[in-house]
From TrEMBL:
Database matches in InterPro entries: Rossmann-like_a/b/a_fold, Universal_stress_UspA, UspA
Classification via Gene3D superfamilies: HUPs (3.40.50.620)
Lineage per the UniProt record: Bacteria, Bacillati, Actinomycetota, Actinomycetes, Geodermatophilales
Protein name: Nucleotide-binding universal stress protein, UspA family
Residues annotated as domain UspA: 4-149
Family indicated by similarity: Belongs to the universal stress protein A family.
Entry-linked PANTHER family: STRESS RESPONSE PROTEIN NHAX, UNIVERSAL STRESS PROTEIN UP12
């Protein structure tokens, strides 16, 4: 089996998603693969500013990311983490859309051969009832998916 050439990893800026970013960065570095870091976000409307402030104050688990500026900050921080873990070539993408659709679209456009996500949501009741990002991308992806154990 040949090494991966392009790895896509999703992040929402949470501590658990950054664990997946670090794992993807180490793997991309070991394979000398390009790493594409993706943050899906919702556009910020004027009437959502108060809601965003409330989410920002909650900290961990503040997904969904709302607004391009916070999404840009998320991918910038994630890129630093990935480089620190060993990644060489890193591309940052903040994209308007839902996490699952965005990740699958970026995998296709980037011609990736591996998608990396954290396992947050897989074991939750909500995740079992309505689905989760890792479960949905694993089911729908046309490329290998690495689900990193990021939660206890």
């Amino acid at each position: 089996m040949s090494a991966y050439r392009t790895v896509v990893v999703g992040t929402d800026g949470s501590d658990s998603s950054l664990l997946a970013v670090r794992r993807a960065g180490a793997l991309a570095g070991a394979c000398r693969a390009r790493l594409v870091i993706v943050c899906a976000y919702l556009p910020l409307r004027a009437d959502e500013r108060e809601g965003r402030r409330a989410r920002d104050q909650r900290g961990e688990g503040a997904y969904p990311v709302v607004g391009s500026e916070p999404a840009d900050d998320v991918v910038r921080r994630a890129a630093e983490e990935a480089v620190g873990a060993g990644a060489g070539e890193v591309e940052q993408m903040a994209v308007v859309g839902s996490p699952v659709e965005t990740l699958l679209d970026v995998v296709t456009r980037a011609q990736a051969d591996l998608l990396v996500v954290g396992n947050r949501g897989l074991d939750s009741l909500k995740g079992r009832l309505i689905g989760s990002v890792p479960a949905d991308v694993t089911r729908r992806s046309s490329v290998d998916v690495l689900v990193v154990h990021t939660t206890g």
